Every structure is written in structure tokens, then in C-alpha cells.
Amino acid sequence: MRMVDLIEKKKHGQELSEEEIHDIIQGYVANQIPDYQMSAFMMATYFQGMSEKETAILTSEMMHSGDTMDLSGIQGIKVDKHSTGGVGDKTSLAVGPMVAACGAPVAKMSGRGLGHTGGTLDKLESIPGLSVYLSEEDFIKQVNEIKLAIIGQTKQLDPADAKMYALRDVTGTVDSIPLIASSIMSKKLAAGADAILLDVKYGDGAFMKNVEDARKLAKTMIAIGDHLGRDTRATISNMNQPLGNAIGNSLEVKEAIATLKGEGPRDFTELCFEAGETMLLMTKMADTREEAHQKLEAVIKDGSALATLAKMVEAQGGDPSYIMHPEKFPETKEVITVESLKTGYIEDLEALNLGLVSMKLGGGRATMDDQIDHAVGLVLKKKVGDHVEAGEPLLDVHTNTGLSEELKAEILSAYHIVDHEVATPQLIEEILE
């Protein structure tokens, strides 16, 4: 069937067959289907959606459009974790070592940050010498030896997604649930893990703006995992304010290190334990959440979680002394405190605006070619529910380029301060299995 006929079929809301979806993906990767036809097909998908079966087939075809990782050489049930992205989200840097220290193999492929959300790879690369690129053989060897590796995705993995995402970005089809779900899951499945935990975020600083859409995306991805024989579960978490206190690459690494010492922010620590418990259940390293929680507490208390992160850094060419002595990370030229202009309670804290401020300081990318300053960023002193006096610090700005009045105004506008008391928001909405 011609591509135009398949576009017509989807435009009228009809279900495509496995053969038809195969022809679309294979034809597009082979440059036999032009961008304008693929754009039309994705816009038809945006408006008409896809069935569970279609979405699973699309994901499988994208997954098999290039190389796939064979992780059968890793002993045990291999687990990967994926976050849909948010401001201050450094969860993998803490929960990965925690779970690995409990004996579960964590084989993780991560991405880079673009815009206001920082990527795990960029955070790791703030550690001198660390490489996020390993051969498949070295990746398997490292996970077998120390139970943890976090690496970047190769260009040979899921080329269909790379082409389709670039096109979605410029054709207004990014926010389609079937296209988002197939994009995330095709990469995760191609990376070879047996079990996948998804952290699906919603709110101002997240891709999904409300909890209903986040739940719909999570259920779609779980259904894909079920169709393709992978244990897939999801946490729905609130990103209406930054996660933890640190925003910025090395600042977030330092906060992850503090959390592995049992000294992290309450909300970030809560998310790490919830995610870690689920991952230990998925890998059969614990039978109940209570048992999993106790194991995670134990590896923080005895220092083995922190030691696991240091071992991973060393195995990937980085300097492990930065993990044991985070004061070695370079400081910025200035740390400028922004103080509150009024007294009251913080009712709202716009994560997106603060993420954009960090990006403008040099901590993120507006385009993929931008260079990152790993040292810059923000450290929050007050969050939603906190009381603040006029003249009291709201946050510290770590900067090598000063702080313009414009950026200071953006920071102050992110804080909404009211006269009445405000409850601390619930971080984790639910866990879907």
C-alpha cells in the first residue's frame, strides 16, 4: 500500500496492521518515505491516536530499526529506570547506586538535557574524566562486576526515534501520547533491560502538565511493556516545584552524593526510596516494600551505596575522589543570594522558570550544540509550604557571569507568596504496576 493510503487510513481513525506499520518505519529509516509524508502521518496520529496494539507494534518496529543490546550476559534481572524529565531531577544518580548496592543489576542508558530539563549524562560529565560511552562488552562486564553502569545511547540504537523526534519537534506533534510512549519505550526496550521503572512527572516543570495526562502516558507505556514481555511499572510524581534543592549539573551531583550519605532533601529522598523499593521488587531482591526499604536504608547507613557510585565513576574513567570529597567540584566565581521582597508563605514555585534561569546561566542547552557550564545553577533555600520573612534568602545563584536584573526578576516572579498557611504538596501521586 502507498504511504498516502496509509496516511488516509490513519486520518480516518482506522487501525493499521503490523505489516503496514513495519513498512512505514522501515521505509522512513531507509529514506524511501519523505519527511513531508511522515509529518502528515504523525499529525494524523496526533488527532486520531492509536490503539494499544498499534502503539505496541509501532514501538517494536522503532526498537528494531537499528541495533539492540543483548544483555543476556548479565546475571540476574536487569533493571533500568527512566524519568520523563523535570527540574532538579537527579534521581538516577542516587537510586542507581542504592539499588545496585543491594545486589540488583542496574543497566541504564540515559540522555542529554535540552531546554530547562537537565540530562543525566551532562550531570555525570561534571565529574572529571568520566566517559558516558562504553562498548556493549564493557557495559556488560561493568554491570556484572559492580552492578551499575550509566551510559549514553549510541546512534545505531533506535535510529527511527531520532529521525521521528527531530521531525515531531518542528511539526507540532511532540505532545501525542502514542508518539511519546513509543519514543520512550523503543529506546528503553532496545537497551535490553528485563524490567523498566518509569518516573512520569506532571506539572509546571514537566512535559505532561496535569496528572490525568501523566497517568494516561504511564498506562500506555505499561501496556507496551506488557505486549512486548517486559515488566514495566510507573511512578506518577509532582513537578510543580523543583525536585530537591539543587538545579544545575555539579550542584545536583553533590545533592545526590549527600542523599547517598543520608543527608539529602526530604522530597528527593522520598522519591529515591519509593523508586528503589519498586526496583528491588522488580528484580526479586525483596519480597515486600518494607523489606526493600530496610535494605535501602542499610546500604546508605553502611556507606556501600556511596561506594558503589564511586566504583562506577572509576570504572568509567572518572575521578572517584570527587564522590568521596564533593568539595573538590569547582566553585563558580560568585554565589549571589536572592532575598524575598515580602513576608508570607510560599504557595507556588514555578519549576519551569527556575529551570530556564539555570539554563540562561549556562547550566543547560537551548540547542544541542550549546556548551554547558557544569558549575552554575541554583540552590533553593525555601520551597512550597515554607514561611519566609522579607529579606530572608529564597535561593543562592551560583554564577560565572553575574546576575542581571532581568534574571533576578524572573527568579522573584517564580515565587508566589501569600498571607495564609500553605500545605506541603504531595510528591508521589501513585505507583502503577
From TrEMBL:
Catalytic reactions on record: 2'-deoxyuridine + phosphate = 2-deoxy-alpha-D-ribose 1-phosphate + uracil; thymidine + phosphate = 2-deoxy-alpha-D-ribose 1-phosphate + thymine; uridine + phosphate = alpha-D-ribose 1-phosphate + uracil
GO molecular function, one term: 1,4-alpha-oligoglucan phosphorylase activity
InterPro entries recorded: Glycosyl_Trfase_fam3 (IPR000312), Glycosyl_Trfase_fam3_N_dom (IPR017459), Glycosyl_Trfase_fam3_N_dom_sf (IPR036320), Nuc_phospho_transferase (IPR035902), PYNP-like_C_sf (IPR036566), PYNP_C (IPR013102), Pyrmidine_PPas_bac/euk (IPR018090), Pyrmidine_PPase_CS (IPR017872)
Chain ranges of the Pyrimidine nucleoside phosphorylase C-terminal domain: 345-418
Highest taxon above the source species: Bacteria
Transmembrane domains' residue ranges: none
GO cellular component: cytosol
Keywords, in A-Z order: Glycosyltransferase, Transferase
Any single GO BP term: pyrimidine nucleobase metabolic process
Known partners and oligomeric status: Homodimer.
Function in brief: Catalyzes phosphorolysis of the pyrimidine nucleosides uridine, thymidine and 2'-deoxyuridine with the formation of the corresponding pyrimidine base and ribose-1-phosphate.
Family: Belongs to the thymidine/pyrimidine-nucleoside phosphorylase family.
Protein name: Pyrimidine-nucleoside phosphorylase
Organism annotation: Sharpea azabuensis
